[in-house]
Amino acid sequence: xxxxxxxxxxxxxxxxxxxxxxxxxxxxxxxxxxxxxxxxxxxxxxxxxxxxxxxxxxxxxxxxxxxxxxxxxxxxxxxxxxxxxxxxxxxxxxxxxxxxxxxxxxxxxxxxxxxxxxxxxxxxxxxxxxxxxxxxxxxxxxxxxxxxxxxxxxxxxxxxxxxxxxxxxxxxxxxxxxxxxxxxxxxxxxxxxxxxxxxxxxxxxxxxxxxxxxxxxxxxxxxxxxxxxxxxxxxxxxxxxxxxxxxxxxxxxxxxxxxxxxxxxxxxxxxxxxxxxxxxxxxxxxxxxxxxxxxxxxxxxxxxxxxxxxxxxxxxxxxxxxxxxxxxxxxxxxxxxxxxxxxxxxxxxxxxxxxxxxxxxxxxxxxxxxxxx
Length: 373
What we know:
five-stranded mixed beta sheet
């Protein structure tokens, strides 16, 4: 409610804001010297007329000069306009208020033959004091309004920039996921093609596993984030698919130390963890002529989620890896940088006979929640 009252653009909110502001200003600036009971009537009359004269000039300053010149960075025009408004205000106060209105309004408070206002107005030093008081009041009234307008303008620009940044990040993430999906599908179809050439009995079951993975990809395609449980389920399906292909030619070890309660709390962009597992199969069993192995470790401690994948590899795979530089890992790096800026790390350890990737994500801060709206 308070946010709508401060930033709402509906007429009722604007009217309430203006009324509250002017009531507050009137109390603070115009009635501060009117609490002496015998002088309340005099000060009410004087300050109310002063207030009415200042009001339209302040609105001209706030709703014309400020947006037309200050916000458009035409500061010299704004300063000139501000000075003109102040001079006009002083002239109206001096010519219209002090010389014409006050003698009429206060004639009953003073004898006709001794009207102190007329006597005072002839003294230049008192006129200077009047002008300074009038000027200070105008500045004190107008400055908070201009600051409020400036803050609201800054807040509006800030919200707009954040929304543009969020949409830009989402578009870039969508582009990265679109690159990951064909890459993953291409590798999977290669597996199917290899078994089809061998006329393997595993082909029907393999097709079912592939359909499960494709269903996941289509279902989660438009999701910004998925839970660890969802990602682990599809990883399990993918591992079973690869087991059908390689049989006993490789060993896989999975060590999941993440408590089940966190499986629905830990979240991230879809297919990221699967990409690491797929990469291990591609350069491990997929390139090995001997028995190979894959190790997968999951940990969650003190808000830090760690996902480690290590695989054996042939020594001659080093050159091939350097040439293609891993499209999947490139996309993964870019996705993590967009989704978890300054709160993740991806370590790649490439040895002669092993390849290891260690992804760490810091969930102790909540920037990633902006994508879960």
